Input
Amino acid sequence: MLKNVMARGVMCAALLMCATIANAQQTLNFTLGYFTPLALDARDHDDVLLENSTFLLFDPDDFNGASVGGEWLFPLARVIEGGIGVSYMSQDAHSVYFDFVDPDGTEIDQELTLRMVPIAFTVRLVPTGQRSPVQPYIGGGLGIINWRYAESGEFIDFGAGNEIFRDTFVKSGSNVGPVFLGGIRFAGSTASAGFEIKYQKATGDLDANFAAPKIDLGGWTYNFTAGIRF
Output
């Protein structure tokens, strides 16, 4: 008898929570931003870009670039909201060897490409409440970063008499790490707009084809946000 009463109570609470979310103010948010990976001196010590920088000449800032995304925001309490979002970013960096050139005097060059599709599950504190016209917020959560890293072009086989060959090396995966964010939005009854800063941290595993065993996926994203409220 007691178990039946408890089960009914849990079911009623779940239905009440679903009804509360359905009847409360939700937001379909769109983001347009700028992603900046961690600087070389802040990256994981086993990171491939950090290791590449010891024998390749490239500009780490070439991996900075546009990020686009979308997310669903829903209230969990008067000053707490949940979020589920996804974003996309992809950038290339051109590189050449420091101390070696082709026999014809041209550079031995490669393209380094990093693509990421982070999926973030977050909880945010909105001190002024989700009905306020001005809504500062801070939060954090868990990110699942789907990534692909590639090096394509000419390479030197130092174990075979410095033989120069052309190839493409690719590795991809999905890795989990923390996400932290903060921002402010200005909200009406049907629309919102604002600015947000987001930090993500994770590392992916590479194989023996690369100069180091890891790719550091951490970095900062600076987003403008625009939302449809319903």
User: Anything to note?
Assistant: Residues 2-23 form the longest helix (22 residues).
